[in-house]
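Figure caption, in words: inputs first, then the predicted bound structure.
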Amino acid sequence: MVNVGIVGGTGYTGIELLRLIAAHPHLHIAEITSRGEAGRRVDEIFPGLRGVTDLVFQEPDPVRLSRCDVVLFATPNGIAMQSTRELLDAGCKVIDLGADFRLRDASRWQQWYGMEHACPDLLAEAVYGLAELNRAAIAEAKLVANPGCYPTAVALGLLPLLESQQFDLGHIVADCKSGVSGAGRALKLQTLFCEANESFKAYGASGHRHLPEIEQVLGDALGGCVDISFVPHLVPMTRGMQATLHVPVDGSLEQFHALYAQRYADEPFVDLMDSGEHPETRWVAGSNRSLVALHQSASRRDRLVILAVIDNLTKGASGQAIQNLNLMFGFKEETGLVSAECSA
Ligand SMILES: NC(=O)C1=CN([C@@H]2O[C@H](COP(=O)(O)OP(=O)(O)OC[C@H]3O[C@@H](n4cnc5c(N)ncnc54)[C@H](OP(=O)(O)O)[C@@H]3O)[C@@H](O)[C@H]2O)C=CC1
Ligand SMILES: CC(=O)N[C@@H](CCC(=O)OP(=O)(O)O)C(=O)O
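Bound structure (NDP present):
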């Protein structure tokens, strides 16, 4: 068994990790932290886990955590980078579900996250944990930067087009929508029920911190710079995310469908639907799968619309972290992830 430490076990992605690890045959949670709930049983806080775990939340303690084989940080940005060096030196592997190691450029990180990076030297060592792009490197990695939810959906929608390098892509528009759990469990005015329910809004339209990450991952796939606008929206639902991608590109729908079908044929967590289908977020609720569908208006061969749908908490965070962990420890990539699926 692999001994896992979770830092931030009371947040939405931490709870999702608990749910997924409970169904994983090779993982054992050795340590789970919460500063607010330290000393209390996990199943007392989350009665849905009664009978599944007898774990007790602990204060985060680097010495105890360093005894684990792998530590997953399900914490706000800026926390993982404070103890990652110590954990790596102790022989632990680290997966950060936050953004601390996602951008390779420390000054860009500081510009978008508003704080100085605590260990910029580790940025070159960290592998961006999008298995569909970096599978081999993740398998060798000691430190994995789990992608953000919006960058995951956008990248999965665009990878085949970018990697093929056959097309002249114009300015791409990424129009993205997220359920409210994307904002985390901590109290915030804008995610209170009466603020978010029965309402719909864009946010971060003049600059969201996922833009540099999107530019970086798409640039890696293309091998050049990608011109893209990104606007996120908050949808009054608990979980789920859609990226609607408008791409000015010449070609027939059949040609693009064939390209996507070939590229994603062996991807366990990307499901290409028939062209013209409209994937729904409820179809991937609790699942690590992404649904992708292509659209083209009969009168416009110069534009493609791509729909990519994920569960922000699963493929967009904790499921993707387990997918990466499976690769890092030599397990089959799907282990513990397929049986945890539930869809409406
Ligand atoms: N929600 C989502 O859909 C996605 C989230 N992410 C990222 O994953 C990370 C976790 O997100 P999410 O679960 O939503 O966040 P939450 O706010 O729901 O939970 C954060 C957790 O971190 C703990 N925590 C907070 N501050 C500290 C600290 N200084 N030291 C140790 N633990 C701390 C909290 O517990 P306590 O305060 O009791 O210690 C809590 O358990 C974030 O970086 C987020 O951006 C990424 C993709 C999608
Ligand atoms: C709905 C909502 O608020 N979503 C979050 C994105 C969650 C995420 O992936 O954030 P990190 O990059 O910090 O890991 C946001 O826009 O800030």
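The pocket of NDP (ligand 1) is lined by residues 7-14, 34-37, 60, 74-77, 79, 97-98, 148-149, 181-182, 184-186, 312-313, 316-317 (CB under 6 Å).
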